[in-house]
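RETRY 2/3 - previous attempt timed out on the joint model. Re-submitting the same 508-residue input unchanged.
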Amino acid sequence: MIPPMHSVYLDNNATTPVDPSVFEAMRPFLTDHFGNAASIHGFGQTARAAVEVGRQQVADLLGAEASEVVFTCGGTEADNAALKGIADTRDGRGGHIVTTRIEHPAILRTAEALEKSGIDVTYLAADESGIVSASQVEEALREDTFLVSVMWANNETGAIQPLPEICALCKERGIVTHTDAVQAAGKTVIDLVRVGVDLLSISAHKFHGPKGVGALYIRSGVQFSPSMLGGSHERGRRGGTENVPGIVGLGKACELAQKYMSDFNSRTRDLRDRLQARILEAIPQARVNGSITNRLPHVCNISFPGVEGESLLVALDFQGIAVSTGAACSSGSVNPSHVLTGMGLSSERIGSAIRFSLGRMTVEADIDYTLKVLPPLVHRMYEVSPLRRS
Amino acid sequence: MYSERVKRLLLELPNRGPLPDADSSGSSSNPVCGDVVHIHLKVRNDVVVEARFEAYGCPGALAAAAGLAECIQSMSFEKCLAVDKTSLLEYLGGLPPGKEHGCDLAIAALRNACASGG
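RETRY 2/3 succeeded.
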């Protein structure tokens, strides 16, 4: 048995460590600069200035205007606010939304709630590569379709959706578009001029910022009805005292993501590709899930048919390696990933899926160690599996 | 969390694999979650001289099957039949909530093996 001397974090799509520079930027706003950004006095104005710097940093990362950025408490709130905020402008006239089966639950549960209020929703299936095509979206559109929400990149497979095409065909028809870019922001270039999406959600903790803060981009001119009611914060688009330290952290994380974008892309792609290639080489039964050409640079999702994913995850964890899985078993029932299910993968493939998501802090030694530990563990599990033996 | 014994069992999976000249074998499965456990026994004079297991399933199922195969080595048939969920959990040092059902599978497989060889 290899002693667990290492600590390797390959679950960066779940969350990322806060960058030390982000923490240092936030610190004064947790101590000395505690003012309410809505206050007129000096304490408040110091906080207000910091919030506006953060807003500009977010806007710079997205290629947006600062006035188009609304702070939220994270990606889930941003997704909720986007869908409800557009649906509410309908004033109860019903209508139709198009989204996909591979969205985050923040979108799926919100869409289901809107269905109960009389809005029709079409949930498009992804193909085996984890991608929903623009033609699928086009075929689903109706006369009364008012919103299309398709994620930028999938959290489990990293598969990048054809947003420019989807947004272009929606724009021709005057349909508002939203994208959940929580996994994409800070990891791939978000070019709102090229993509042309109307609303976009991000979350700080996915790219080395703090938890509990995110943002919703709302293109200037798009009609939006706030769901968080209260004061006139965020220009009336989201009530509630701004999370000043969080916003400062989000802003700094955006600045750093932009600074390291090119390096992050090339370095994590190299590491990810090496990890994937060596796994496939060492374990012939392994299969990659989702597109291998059109995906985020830091993600790979691999199934080991015949091995139970959660057992492999726990065994890796015992050796100090953190990954995530496509299904979880609790008290004798399995909760399979809705994403991999939505791609039409077999239950054996879903049940054995492991997601490796690298981050800015991932180094060569992390990959070396994982490649040293993983294959023998999988081979042992194959030896014990009545379903498949190597 | 998992005990040190469960960690060792899951990482090493001792006594794993089929037993070609087994005197008796028994299986049990959960059709809902798909977990399955096989227990193979080699027996001399009503005593288990070798036990092996095969298993597919969650960490609880693998650890329970491995733990059971380990703890019944050199055990009499009579004592094997007396192994229950409480004693297996005690041997494992416990399992997290939601993972204890693996013990039921392993014990059912053992009892089926004892019945087929008895």
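Chain A touches chain B at residues 1, 306-308, 310-311, 314-315, 318-319, 329-334, 347, 351, 377, 380-381, 383-387 (CB under 8 Å). Closing ticket.
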